[in-house]
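Thiol-disulfide oxidoreductase ResA structure dump, as promised
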Amino acid sequence: MPITQSTGTPPGWPAPDFMLPGTDGRDYLLTDFTAKEGTLIIFTCNHCPYAKALWPVFIKLHEEFGDSIDFVAINPNDDSAYPEDSFAVMKEKAEEWRIPFPYLRDQSQTVADSYHAVCTPDSFLFRNAGGTLELFYRGKVNDNWQEPDNVTTHYLRDAIELLLAGKPAPVEQPPSVGCSIKWKQT
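structure tokens r here:
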């Protein structure tokens, strides 16, 4: 499976707005995720091996930091080419994997495009600056997605801890790695 890496996005970049449907039957706006100290937006999916391997990590991070950080996952993949990424299957996976935060569908792919998301998963951690979400960290979750017991560097966890401690954004922001977003053919 080819690897795709995210491109650099400057710290302080403002989160683009959105309105997307969730697997729980509710529509969500970006402003629904501005009440806490930060927000983690994850572009992900159901079928990619990288995304599948990291779902448990995101769920565990939510267990640890969900009181202080809003979490939201967004699936932008073309479900006509990848039926496993359909909204119906997303609903099944949300229940099966017990995803404790909103899992949203970006059917038009405009939200993924506005964030310049390129792979699954592609993680964007934003600091809440008085109701405006400013990019704090975009990048890799950890240094060993295939062998969770052998992770030595927890990039995303470390970034969350820095954000919550009121520290500057991490200098090292290695790019997210995963399967390319499955863009619709036009």
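The chain has four helices and ten strands.
lmk if u need the other ones
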